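From the methods appendix. Each design record in this collection lists the tokenized structure first, followed by the designed amino acid sequence. Records were kept in a plain field format so they could be parsed without special tools. The example shown here is representative of the layout used throughout.

RECORD:
FOLD TOKENS (147 positions):
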């Protein structure tokens, strides 16, 4: 179940931090950001400087224990993700072109300015953006997400 500290504002920061690295992101893949970055184990692994993501397949294979029950995490974060995307569009922080979110305003939070969780999200966003470079169909199948 999603915790009270995993809210729309944190989801918005997470989406913005990934868009700062990958300025054009498929909307379907943007729904995977929150479950990846709200999970402490996954976020902790992806934020490390020694973690170099080549593909989502490589991460899921190497750390398959982190992704057990990922579908439940995805479902738990659906409302938060939807609201965070809606907030970002309303605040004109990013835009929707076809099926892609496009960065309009870079995140205003720098590493070290906010709490540890936000800092970890900012650090992990580069690796998350590499994972989300894959097409939604293969990514959802790999993570065993049922829509």
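DESIGN:
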């Amino acid at each position: 179940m999603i915790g009270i500290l995993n809210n729309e504002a944190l989801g918005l920061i997470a989406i913005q931090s990934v868009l700062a690295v990958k300025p054009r992101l498929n909307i379907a893949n943007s729904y995977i950001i929150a479950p990846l970055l709200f999970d402490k184990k996954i976020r902790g692994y992806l934020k490390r400087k020694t973690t170099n993501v080549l593909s989502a397949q490589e991460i899921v294979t190497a750390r398959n224990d982190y992704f057990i029950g990922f579908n439940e995490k995805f479902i738990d974060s659906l409302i938060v993700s939807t609201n965070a995307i809606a907030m970002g569009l309303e605040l004109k922080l990013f835009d929707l072109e076809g099926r892609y979110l496009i960065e309009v305003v870079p995140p205003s939070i720098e590493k070290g300015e906010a709490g540890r969780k936000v800092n970890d999200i900012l650090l992990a966003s580069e690796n998350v953006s590499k994972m989300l470079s894959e097409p939604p169909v293969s990514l959802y199948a790999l993570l065993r997400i049922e829509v």
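APPENDIX NOTE: Residues 8-142 form one domain.
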